[in-house]
Each structure stands twice: as C-alpha cells, then as structure tokens.
Amino acid sequence: MDEFEYVRKKLIERILHLTEKQPVVSPLPGLTVSRRESPTEPNSYMLPPGICIAIQGAKRVLLGEEYYVYDVNNFLLTSLDLPVTAQVIEASREKPYIGLVWEIDMDILTELIVESRFCVREDRPSRGMSLGRVTHQILDAFRRMLDLLDEPENIPVLLPVIKREITYRLLTSEQGSKLFQMAMSEKTNVMKAVNYLKEHFNEKVNMKELAELVGMSVSSFYQHFKALTGMTPLQYQKKLRLCEARRLLMAGSDVTTAAYQVGYESLSQFSREYRRFFGVSPSHDAKEFKQGIYEKVLH
Q1: pTM for this model (two decimals)
Q2: Exposure string (b/e) for 241-280, b if CB count within 10 Å is 16 or more?
Q3: Domains of the chain
Q4: pLDDT tens, position by position, for the chain (299 residues)?
Q5: Measured between alpha carbons, how far is 94 from 204 in angstroms, rounded to an integer?
Q6: CB-based contacts of 188: which residues, under 8 Å, 6+ apart?
Q7: Sheet bearing 43-47, strands edge to edge
Q8: Can you tell me the distance from the alpha carbon of 47 to that of 216, in angstroms, rounded to the nearest whole number?
C-alpha cells in the first residue's frame, strides 16, 4: 500500500467513526465531513470559498450550466460563494461516499500570499470553481487535522499550523491562481458586485446602476460576471434569495414571511422558483424542517 492509499484509508476510518450517529458533522471550525451510503438526489445550496474532497466515492456539482465531478483523485475548489446543485453519484453501503468540505481562512491565505510574494496574472476572467489534483501531502494534512480531536488541548496551537500548511500547498498547486483570485477578490470589479448582491439580495437592483457602481460598461460587466459565476447577476441574486429563504424555513419561519423577507412580492412566483431550484415546494420544506427530518447542514 503506497502513502496515498495509506493516508486515505486512515481518513476513511476516522470519518466513518465521526459519522456513526449522523451522516454530516462539523468536528472542527470550518470543516465538515460526511458519509452517504447511496447516491443522492440533487440538492441545492450555497457553497462557500474552500476545498471539497471525496475521500471515497464521487460527487457531481452543477454551477450554471457546467458540471464538475470530484472524486478520489480530484478536489473541487471554489473561490467565492456560489449557488450550486450537487449530488453524490458514487456510493454504496459497502463503499460509502466519504467527503470533506473545508472553508479556507482568508486571513491565512492573505498572509501567505504576502509572505511568499505570490503573484499571478490573469489575462481574462475565469470561473470561480475548478478541479485540482489531490496529493498525498494534502490528504495527510487533513488526517493530522482530524487526529487533533484525540488531543483537544493542542488544537488552539496546532490547528492554525495545519491550516497554514494546507493553504500553502493549495497556493503552490496548479490551482494557486484561484486562491490568489480569492484573496484579491475584494479588489476586483466583479467581486465588488458579487459582494453588493450578497448584502442587498432582498432589494430590487438596477443592473445598469450596479455596473456603473463598479466602474464597468453593462456588456463588459455581464460578460465578466458570467465568466466568474456561471450565471447572470439576476440569476445569482435569485439563487441567493432562495438559499436565504430555505435558511429561514430551517429556522422556523413560515413560507409567507420567508418569501417577503428575502424580497419576493409574489408568493406564487416564490413557490414556483423555490420548487424549480430545490425540487420541492417551500411548504413541504417548512413542514419537514419543523419535524426535524432534514439535516441542519445540507451539503
């Protein structure tokens, strides 16, 4: 057994133990691990900036009109909050899907870019999601991160060290430009628009005024926004609204209140678009969430 398979085996054993009682858990800040014993139906949610790894099995993610499949050999990297539809496509009781999602610490990323003087030139806008190669070093760092659960007194000191190592290995990988884009995102025009939409998702936004706000022509703004997110600004805003509405329903809100709170003026339009995005009606979700059937962490 080579080093890669040895570390993968140890990670599988650890995550299987962590998910004995429930299939999705967050054992450390920013880290979520999961187990699925069969392929799942498509599930829509906001995926934060970070890395997704399938320790065993495979998962497919739809962003806009493009599919990304990550598995044992390929991780998924996202450089901004993205509304996605995902499903486990390879899993069984004998070989369950074992996955982890880790949110990258922006402070650590920025510090490493400054310290290493890392710089990259992007001649054209690129998608905020990509696939990269899983290495033994990356897996081993996550193994050591989870091993800290056995010595909780050392977590405050050693966890930041391991987080820096993982971030550095990603920064020096073939996907380093994506992390650079992530760290510098607040300085780019399109990311200013993305952040504006996240802060004003429940308000009517004039896209011409938004383009002017970030100093771009309307045509250039649309082109660059779609290149980064895989969708138009209005589509992005709509999915932000729907994801926030689902969060409100999970927190106990009723359908009407959730719809109006996220900016919908028509309850029928809200129900129609909610069903199209999530595959079920908001009233169905509200009932299920109230009964505690759905998991709190959807991805």
Answers
A1: 0.81
A2: bbbbbbbbbbeebebeebbeebbbeeeeebbebbeebbee
A3: 3-185 (2.60.120), 188-290 (1.10.10.60)
A4: 689 999 999 999 999 999 999 999 999 999 999 999 999 998 889 898 899 999 999 999 999 889 999 999 999 998 888 899 999 999 999 999 999 999 988 888 888 887 776 655 554 556 788 999 999 999 999 999 999 999 999 999 999 999 999 999 998 888 887 777 666 654 567 778 888 888 888 888 888 888 888 888 888 888 888 888 888 999 999 999 999 999 899 888 999 999 999 999 999 999 999 999 988 999 998 888 877 655 444 45
A5: 50
A6: 181
A7: 43-47, 82-90, 58-63, 66-70
A8: 27
The single residue listed with the structure tokens 């980064």 is 228
Residue 141 identity: A
**Tokens at residue 18, please?**
């962590």
Which residue's structure tokens are 């994506």?
A: 178
